[in-house]
Amino acid sequence: MGSGKSTLCNLLSEQLDFPFIPEPYMHNPFLPDAHQGVKGAHIKSQLYFLVEHWKTFHQISDEGTIFIKDSSVTDSAMVYVESMHRDGKINQDEYDLYHSFYDEIMNHIPSPKCLIYLRPSVDTLYERMIARNRSYESCVPKSYLQGLQDYYDQFIGEMDVPVLRLNDFNRDDISEIVTYIEKQL
Predict the structure, then answer these.
(1) What CATH number corresponds to the domain at position 89?
(2) Which domain holds residue 162?
(3) Burial of residue 73, with CB atoms counted within 10 A of its CB: 0-12 exposed, 13-18 middle, 19 or more buried
(4) How far apart are CA 105 and CA 121, in angstroms?
(5) Is the CB of residue 20 less than 8 Å from the CB of residue 54?
(6) What is the C-alpha to C-alpha distance for residues 122 and 147, in angstroms, rounded to an integer?
(7) pLDDT tens by residue, the chain, 185 residues
(8) CA 77 – CA 99 distance, rounded (Å)
């Protein structure tokens, strides 16, 4: 939330001429309720994202296309679902259900060629989130963002693919980022 993923992905898509497939957050009917803490909405929201990731990979793999994505099925599972489970927003049965689907889907989805990890400060994330003025994000506290960042740090540290870590990015840095990606392909 607010790290600049979509901005960077749009720039990379233009530079590399690969399609950008954004996270379908605008279409997730459960996301506003999940941010409001409505019981049962968290697991529904994450299952929605899981299915959308699967549909995207299924469609793209049929075409054999290299593409750019601002999130992955893995970070949804290893960051968001873990965080929600820890915080009691997803109970053990929901967690197990999610992971049964996730494990099956991961048998059919290839690993990414590389990752770019944008890690601005929690204060910067919060300021950007407030500035973009999405009503359902207005109740998200900094502590939640810090928890997500902690999970991302752990998740990225365990990845077995090349990772470019950036505290933030400047549009002037795009050529260096493109060069990094081209070396990984």
Answers:
(1) 3.40.50.300
(2) 5-184
(3) buried
(4) 32
(5) no
(6) 10
(7) 667 788 898 899 999 998 888 877 778 899 889 888 899 999 999 999 899 888 888 777 666 677 888 777 777 777 889 888 988 999 999 999 999 999 998 888 777 888 888 888 889 888 888 888 777 677 778 888 888 888 888 888 888 889 898 887 788 889 999 999 999 88
(8) 8
